[in-house]
Design brief:
The chain is mainly alpha-helical. The chain is built from 47 helices and seven strands.
Length: about 950
C-alpha cells in the first residue's frame, strides 16, 4: 500500500509549554545584541543550557534558537554530538568551525589563523601535516580559543548551538569547557542541550557555570495533560475527546517527541479522537519507539531496511552516496528508500551543503542501531571502514568503524589504526590515539612490528597515564631483535616515564644498565647522559660525588661532535655550577655544549639539559645570555604548540632569571604566568613547585610577606620534601619566608638539614643554594659566632666559584652578622663586588646596608651617598619594602630623599657604551678613566650601570656589544 505524503520534517512546530525557555532565549539574544554594541553583559556568562531526558524537546529548542538567531541577523555556528561518533576526536569542533573556514582560500586561511595554523590545522581537519611535530593538548586548546575568538570578532554577533552535548567527543568537550568562561568578553552566545545523566565529566563549566545563577541549566519538564491535548487537537481537530487526550498523555508519558509523532500518526489515520479510536491510538504509540519502531521499519522492503541500518552505522548526518556504496544499492533504490524513510518519519534532510540526511530524532537512530544483529553490524562497520578509506575520508574516519570490528589479525587494520593514531597525535588528541593503538595491539600486529607499536602506544599514554607507559615500554623491550635506534628511544622514554612516576632510582638503573650493554658508542653516550640527568634530579642519589667525578672524566675527552656528546658537556657544566667549581669551567663547558645547537623540543632527548645549560649563564653572572637561550627555547615550544608543562617551566625559570637581575615586577609576572600554565596541566606538580618557590622569593624581595605566606599555605609549600631536586630549593625558600616573619628558631634547623643534604652531594655553591647565608641570618640573634662561621665559609665557597654576585651576597651577609665597625669594610667590599655584577637588587640591598652602617658610625655624607644609590636601585627593581627602609634610614640620619637621578631604562647612554667598549677590550679601570677623563670611582659607577642594564658582567660585555645595542641619546 502506498504511503500518503506526510508533513515535511523540516517544518517547525509551535513549542508547547516552553514559555520559560523561549523567554530565556529571547533575553539572551537581547543581551548578545547589547554586548555587540559595546554594553557589558549584566552578570551573565554568555552560556544558555537546556537539559532533559530523551524526547523532552531539546532538539526542538535548538532548532527554534537557530531560527530566532537567524531572524536577528546573527551568525549561527552549530554542532551536534553523535552516539556512535564519540570516539572521533574534535568532530564537534570541526562541525562548528569548518563551514566558516571552508569559505576562505589557502592564503586567506593562513593569514586568518596566523602562527596558530600549524598547531590546530590537524585538529580542524584542514590538511595532512605529514611529519610535522605534534602539539600538546594544552597548545591545541589555546589555538582553538584563538580561532573561535577570531571567528567571533569577524562574524559578530555569533550564536554557537550545540545539540546532544552528552555525545560530543571528549576532545571537543574539554575545549568547550575551557573556552566557555571567555565568552563573557565576546559577542558570543553558546546554547547547549544535553541529557544530564549522560554528560561526561569533561563538560565542566558547560554543566554548571560558576558564579552565574542566571545561567543554571533549564531543566525541561514533561508535558502536562493539557499540553499533550493541545498537540493532539492541533492535528486531528478540537473535537478530540478529553478522555482520548488523557489516554494519549498516558501512552506518551508526556514526552513532546512521542506526543508529536503520535498526533501526526493519528491525523494520517484520520482518527477523530473518540473512545473508539483508543485501540488504534495505542498501536500507533507503541510503534513510535523501541520494538514498535523496529516492527514498523521491518514492514518496509529489504533494501530500505538495509539502507536504514547503514545510516545508523554511519551516524547522523551521513552521505546518501556513501551509504549506498556500503549497502550496495543503486541510485534508484536509494532514492526510493530515502522517500520511504522520510515518509515513515525516520529520516530527514540534514543541514549540510552536500545533501546529507539525518535521523528525525536521536532516539530513532539509537533504536535502529541497537536492533542490528551483532555479526551483521560488525560486517557493516568493516565495509564502512573500507568504503570511507576508498572515498578519501582518511584513516581516522575508517578507524571509528574498525573499533567495532572483531580482531582478525589484519595487517591492513593495524596499519590504518596506527596511521589514524598518528593523525590524532598531530592534533593533540592523545586519548583518542591511545584507544586506536590499544586496539591495533589486540588485532594483533606482525611480530616484527610489535615493539614499534608498543613504543607508539607508550608515547600516546605518556601525558595521560605514565604508569601504563612504563608497562608498554617494558613489554617492547622484551620483544626479540629490537632495532638499536628504536631500543634507544624506548629506553629514553622509559626513563622519562619512570622519573614522572616518582621512580627516579629505577630510571637511573635502567639507563646505567643500557649504557653498559650498548654496542654503539653513540647509544652508549646517550644512555650515560640519561643516567646523569636522572641522578642529578634525584634527591637521594647515594653517591653523587663519585658520579660527578665520572662525569668530569668523561667530559674531558669529548670534543662535542654530536648531540650526545654535547649533552654530556652540558651536564658537566651544570654539575660544575652546583659543585661550586670555578665559574669559568662551567661557562666553558656550557659554550662547548651549545656549539651546534640544543633544542627544547627534541622529543628523543628532552629539554632538561638545554634548560640547565642556559641557567649556567645565569649563575655565572651572564643572565642576558641565559635569557637569549630561554627566549629561543620558549619560542620553540610556542611554535610547536607545547603550551603545557614545558612552557610552564620556561616562563617560570625566565622569571627566575629576571629575579636574579633584580627586575622584580617582571619576575613576578613571569612566575605567575608559569604557575597559571602549570595549574592547567594534569600532573605538572614539579612545575608548580618551581613556580611557587620563585614567586615566594620574588614577593619577599618586594616586601610582600603576607602575600608570600598566603601563597605558601595555598600550595602547602614547605610541608613536604619533594623527591626531585627543585631550584630554588623549596626548604631554603620556606626558611626565607620564616625569617621574613621573624621565626628564626624554626628556620635554623630547616636550613641545617638542607646543608647536611647538599654537603653530602658535594653541592657547595652558595650561588645555587644560599642555605649558609640564610642560616647565618637565622643564628645571628642567638649564636653569633656560629653565624659568622657559616657566613665566612659561604664567602670562601663563593670566591671559589668566582661570580661577583655570589661573592657580594656572601660578603653582605657576613657584614650583617659581624656588625660593628668591623662590618664597614665587609659592606664596602660587598658593594664593590656587586657593582661588578648584573645583580641590581642585591646591589641595592648591600648599598642600603652599607649606608645604614655608615650612618650608625657617624659618617653621614658617605652614608647619604650609599643610601641614595640604594634607594634608586630599590625603586627601579620594584623592591618597595627595601626602598621604604632606605627612606627610613635617610630620615633617621636627618636627611631627605632626593629625586631619582636616572631614568629606569635598559638602553646604554653614549657614555656608558664607550666605557663598556673600552672595558671589553681589556683595559683596566685606570686606563678607562684616563680615556674618559673621569675619576676611577665614576668609571666604576658607569660600569655598574652597564652590568645592570646589559645583564652581564665584564666577561660577557663583548658579546653584548656585538649584538648591536645602540646608545640612548
Amino acid at each position: 500500500m502506498a504511503m500518503a505524503p506526510r508533513r515535511p520534517i523540516t517544518e517547525q512546530r509551535r513549542l508547547i509549554e516552553r514559555r520559560r525557555e523561549l523567554e530565556a532565549l529571547d533575553t539572551a539574544f537581547q543581551e548578545l545584541r547589547r554586548t555587540t554594541a559595546g554594553v557589558p553583559r549584566a552578570g551573565r556568562s554568555g552560556l544558555l543550557a537546556f537539559s532533559g531526558q530523551a524526547g523532552l524537546g531539546k532538539t526542538a529548542l535548538i532548532t527554534e534558537a537557530r531560527a530566532r538567531a537567524a531572524a536577528h541577523g546573527f551568525t549561527v555556528l552549530s554542532g551536534r554530538g553523535g552516539e556512535t561518533e564519540q570516539g572521533s576526536a574534535f568532530r564537534v569542533v570541526r562541525q562548528l568551525v569548518q563551514p566558516s573556514l571552508a569559505a576562505m582560500d589557502g592564503a586567506e586561511l593562513r593569514s586568518f589563523m596566523g602562527s596558530w595554523y600549524d598547531i590546530v590545522a590537524a585538529a580542524l581537519g584542514l590538511e595532512a601535516r605529514g611529519s610535522a611535530p605534534a602539539p600538546d593538548p594544552t597548545g591545541v586548546r589555546e589555538g582553538l580559543d584563538w580561532v573561535m575568538t577570531r571567528l567571533t570578532v569577524k562574524k559578530a554577533p555569533v550564536v554557537l548551538l550545540l545539540d546532544d552535548l552528552h555525545w560530543a567527543d571528549a576532545e571537543s568537550l574539554s575545549w568547550l569547557a575551557s573556552f566557555a568562561p571567555r565568552v563573557e568578553d565576546l559577542p558570543l552566545l553558546i546554547v547547549v542541550a544535553y541529557r544530564p545523566d549522560e554528560l561526561p565529566p569533561e563538560a565542566g563549566e558547560l554543566r554548571s557555570p560558576a558564579g552565574h545563577r542566571e545561567n543554571r541549566p533549564h531543566d525541561l519538564a514533561l508535558l502536562t495533560t493539557d499540553g499533550v491535548a493541545q498537540i493532539v487537537r492541533e492535528e486531528i481537530g478540537e473535537a478530540a475527546e478529553d478522555r482520548f487526550c488523557e489516554e494519549c498523555w498516558s501512552a506518551t508519558g508526556g514526552s513532546p517527541f512521542e506526543a508529536v509523532e503520535l498526533a501526526i500518526g493519528l491525523a494520517e489515520r484520520k482518527l477523530s479522537g473518540t473512545e473508539d479510536d483508543l485501540p488504534a491510538m495505542r498501536e500507533l504509540a507503541a510503534a513510535i519507539k523501541g520494538p514498535g519502531l523496529i516492527e514498523r521499519l521491518e514492514r518496509l522492503d529489504t533494501a530500505t531496511v538495509r539502507f536504514a541500518h547503514t545510516a545508523a552505522v554511519l551516524g547522523s548526518p551521513f552521505s546518501p552516496r556513501l551509504a549506498a556504496t556500503i549497502a550496495v544499492l543503486g541510485d534508484e533504490a536509494v532514492a526510493e528508500s530515502t522517500q520511504k524513510l522520510r515518509a515513515a518519519r525516520i529520516l530527514a534532510d540534514g543541514h549540510g551543503p552536500e545533501g546529507e540526511l539525518e535521523f528525525v530524532h536521536p532516539l530513532i537512530a539509537t533504536t535502529i542501531y541497537r536492533s542490528i544483529r551483532t555479526a551483521f553490524r560488525a560486517g557493516l562497520h568493516n565495509t564502512a571502514a573500507q568504503t570511507v578509506l576508498a572515498a578519501g575520508y582518511g584513516p581516522t574516519a575508517a578507524a571509528r568503524h574498525l573499533l567495532e570490528v572483531p580482531c582478525e589479525g589484519s595487517t591492513e587494520t593495524v596499519d590504518c589504526l596506527r596511521e589514524a593514531a598518528r593523525e590524532y597525535l598531530r592534533a593533540g588528541a592523545t586519548e583518542a590515539a591511545r584507544r586506536l593503538l590499544s586496539r591495533a595491539l589486540q588485532e594483533p600486529p606482525l611480530p616484527e612490528d610489535r615493539a614499534a607499536l608498543l613504543h607508539e602506544l607508550a608515547c600516546a599514554t605518556f601525558l595521560i597515564e605514565p604508569t601504563a607507559t612504563v608497562r608498554h615500554l617494558r613489554q617492547a623491550l622484551a620483544e626479540p631483535r629490537v632495532d638499536p635506534d628504536l631500543r634507544a628511544s624506548i629506553i629514553f622514554r622509559l626513563t622519562q616515564a619512570l622519573a614522572h612516576t616518582d621512580q627516579l632510582a629505577e630510571a637511573v638503573t635502567v639507563a646505567a644498565e643500557e649504557a653498559r650493554q650498548a654496542k654503539s658508542p653513540r647509544v652508549k653516550l646517550r644512555m650515560q647522559a640519561d643516567q646523569f640527568v636522572w641522578s642529578m634530579v634525584r634527591t637521594d642519589d647515594p653517591d653523587s660525588p663519585a658520579r660527578s667525578r665520572t662525569l668530569a672524566r668523561l667530559a674531558e675527552r669529548l670534543p662535542g661532535r654530536g648531540l650526545e656528546e654535547r649533552y654530556i658537556l652540558g651536564l658537566r657544566a651544570w654539575d660544575a655550577v652546583k659543585r661550586g667549581e670555578p665559574r669559568q669551567t662551567a661557562l666553558t663547558y656550557a659554550e662547548k655544549a651549545l656549539r651546534g645547537g640544543m633544542s627544547w623540543i627534541d622529543e628523543n632527548h628532552g629539554f632538561e639539559v638545554p634548560v640547565s645549560v642556559a641557567l649556567v649563564f645565569m649563575y655565572g653572572d651572564q643572565p642576558r645570555r641565559a635569557e637569549e637561550l630561554f627566549n629561543k627555547g620558549i619560542a620553540e615550544c610556542v611554535a610547536k604548540g607545547w603550551r603545557g608543562s614545558h612552557l610552564a617551566f620556561g616562563q617560570t625559570l625566565a622569571g627566575y632569571i629576571r629575579y636574579q637581575r633584580g627586575c622584580l615586577a617582571e619576575a613576578e609576572d613571569l612566575a605567575r604566568e608559569g604557575l597559571r600554565i602549570a595549574g592547567k596541566v594534569a600532573g605538572a606538580v614539579p612545575a608548580q613547585l618551581f613556580a611557587v618557590g620563585i614567586l615566594i622569593q620574588t614577593l619577599l624581595a618586594r616586601g610582600r610577606v603576607a602575600e608570600a605566606r598566603a601563597l605558601a599555605d595555598e600550595h602547602r609549600f614547605g610541608e613536604t620534601t619533594p623527591n626531585a631536586v627543585i631550584y630554588p630549593d623549596p626548604r631554603t625558600v620556606y626558611a626565607e619566608l620564616l625569617l621574613a616573619e621573624g621565626r628564626q628558631a624554626e628556620a635554623a634547623p630547616l636550613l641545617s638539614s638542607v646543608g647536611h643534604w647538599l654537603d653530602g652531594r658535594a653541592w657547595r655553591n652558595p650561588a645555587w643554594c644560599p642555605w649558609q647565608l640564610r642560616l647565618a641570618s637565622a643564628l645571628a640573634p642567638t649564636a653569633p659566632q656560629q653565624a659568622v662561621g657559616h657566613a665566612r665559609d659561604a664567602v670562601r665557597r663563593a670566591r671559589n666559584f668566582g661570580a661577583a654576585s655570589a661573592v657580594g651576597q656572601a660578603l653582605h651577609t657576613l657584614a650583617e652578622v659581624t656588625g660593628g665597625p668591623t662590618a664597614l669594610d665587609l659592606y664596602a667590599e660587598a658593594v664593590d663586588q656587586l657593582e661588578q655584577s648584573p645583580a641590581a637588587y642585591e646591589l641595592a640591598r648591600a648599598q642600603i646596608g652599607h649606608g645604614a652602617a655608615l650612618s650608625r658610625d657617624g659618617r653621614l655624607q658617605e652614608a647619604a651617598d650609599r643610601l641614595y644609590q640604594g634607594l634608586e636601585g630599590a625603586v627601579h627593581c620594584g623592591a618597595e619594602a627595601l626602598a621604604a627602609r632606605a627612606r627610613e634610614e635617610l630620615s633617621a640620619a636627618g636627611l631627605r630623599p632626593l629625586p631619582l637621578r636616572y631614568a629606569q631604562a635598559d638602553t646604554l647612554t653614549a657614555q656608558e657604551r664607550r666605557t663598556a667598549e673600552l672595558t671589553a677590550r681589556g683595559h683596566p679601570v685606570a686606563v678607562v678613566a684616563k680615556e674618559m677623563r673621569l675619576p676611577e670611582q665614576g668609571v666604576r659607577q658607569l660600569l655598574s650601570s652597564v652590568y645592570r642594564k646589559a645583564g652581564t658582567d665584564a666577561a660577557g660585555l663583548a658579546r653584548f656589544l656585538a649584538a648591536g645595542t645602540h646608545p640612548r641619546p
